[in-house]
Amino acid sequence: MQTHPVRIHPLKAKPPSDVACEYTALVRMLAGAQSRVTTLVCDHQQQIQALQAQIMRLRARVVVQATLLAWLRDSLVQLEPEPPEDLTAHAAAADWVICQTGCVSHGGYWREDDGCRRTGKGCVLVEGSEGLVIQPP
Questions:
Q1: Taking a C-beta distance cutoff of 8 angstroms, is the pair 123, 130 a contact?
Q2: Which of 16, 28, 88, 134 is most buried, with most CB under 10 Å away?
Q3: 95 and 69, same structural domain?
Q4: pTM above 0.85, yes or no
Q5: Domain range for residue 37?
Q6: Other C-beta atoms within 10 Å of 133: how many?
Q7: How much of the chain, in percent, has pLDDT values that exceed 90?
Q8: What's the structural domain count of the chain?
């Protein structure tokens, strides 16, 4: 017996199998997923670009504010009046009165080993016509 190859007529093709239908459905689902992912990636890229632009604007604003703050500090320093020279003399006189009061009148309250506990400087007691007096620095 001789067998002849079976020819399938194009009009008499077999209906697609279940595997082919599932494969086609799977490919369509994959194409839809790829389309959604592409859209999401494009949206995220736009958001990233917008955020990077915002970061640049905010950094520029910080630089401007820091510069203005530095200028204002410099201006404030220039506006502050110089202390008068006689203020230093008044401060020295006030220290002398405090030391004299504490060391002479109150029995050496500030005095400790020929030094002042309050200022850390040395004190010099001078004997004058009124008794012991602290010599001003």
A1: no
A2: 134
A3: no
A4: no
A5: 15-79
A6: 16
A7: 39
A8: 2
